[in-house]
Amino acid sequence: MAKGAKRKTKPTEDSKPDSEPTATATATASSQENENQITKAPPKPKRVKASKPQSDPEYFEDKRNLEDLWVETFPVGTEWDQLDSLYDIKWNFSNLENAFEEGGLLSGKKVYLFGCTEPQLVMHKGENKVICIPVVVAVVSPFPPSDKIGINSVQREAEEIIPMKQMKMDWVPYIPLEDRDSQVERLKTEIFILRCTQRRSALKHLKLDRLKKYEYCLPYFYQPFKEDEFEQSTEVPIIYPVEPKPVFCEFDWELDELEEFTDKLIEAEELSADQKDAFKEFVKEKVREAKKANREAREARKKAIAEMSEEAKAAFDAMRFYKFYPVQSTDAPDVSSVKSPFINRYYGKAHEVL
């Protein structure tokens, strides 16, 4: 080599250009990239909420303003164990409701309502059944028709006429549904219903005689201008207490001859021959009691009329009774064939049946 000529040297690692990385660096970078890919969890896919199927809006039928009027009116004389079955059927008393609408039979009038039930054999759900049919009686009157209840039955020897409050019953104002958020004392109502406050949960604590009285209750009414049918009656119910069983019969003091009447009972083996004289005396005493009661009733009626004001006389004369049965519907049996104008022994017959 000539003197002064430059000698070529082998390039070192550090002298290599930056644009060409070493194999080690490349491997290291690749390894770190793989680690990052392994340790870094992939992003979770967003959960898509399932859209709820759009259901049809629910529609609730608006309640009629007087829809529960018949339910709130206590069914006097109904056995307690029959009450639930009474409301199991969806009875429709729209005829009663419509009577209070403008132009209706009871519109603008002061009315007192009481309920009762009539067991009848009717067709229901394809078969004949004995069903307690609810009935509502409307009394159009400027004052309560009575504050008393009659208690009478075949099993009881004599009827009782007692104050309603002894049986926890009273006339109370009925508040229509649309007015129940208002202050009751400010409302002026013309509808009054017979209500019973006896709690059913307390029935088990009542004596049997007291409990049975509810079943024998009849709304009482005294019409001084009309002679009671029992004032005219000459029949006496007889319950003669004798062993092994009492003798039940009716004796008419105008049509029956006592000797012959008694002999027929003996022939029918309903009365023993050794009881003949005692039975005859028993019947005579009952006849005397009945005649005295009829006489006192006539005298009391005449006295009541004599002491009555002209206004009260006019009110009694204008008083009207309307008997409402449930109307025919798909949910209840048809009762049109069993309707009757008779209310009870005190009220007699309704002026109109609806």
TrEMBL record:
GO terms for biological process: regulation of cellular response to heat. Residues 1-59 are annotated as: Disordered. Keywords: Coiled coil. Residues 10-19 have a biased composition (Basic and acidic residues). This is Protein HEAT INTOLERANT 4-like. Residues 30-39 have a biased composition (Polar residues). The keyword Ligase does not apply. InterPro entries: HIT4. The lineage of its organism: Eukaryota, Viridiplantae, Streptophyta, Embryophyta, Tracheophyta. Residues 258-310 form a coiled coil. The keyword Methyltransferase does not apply.
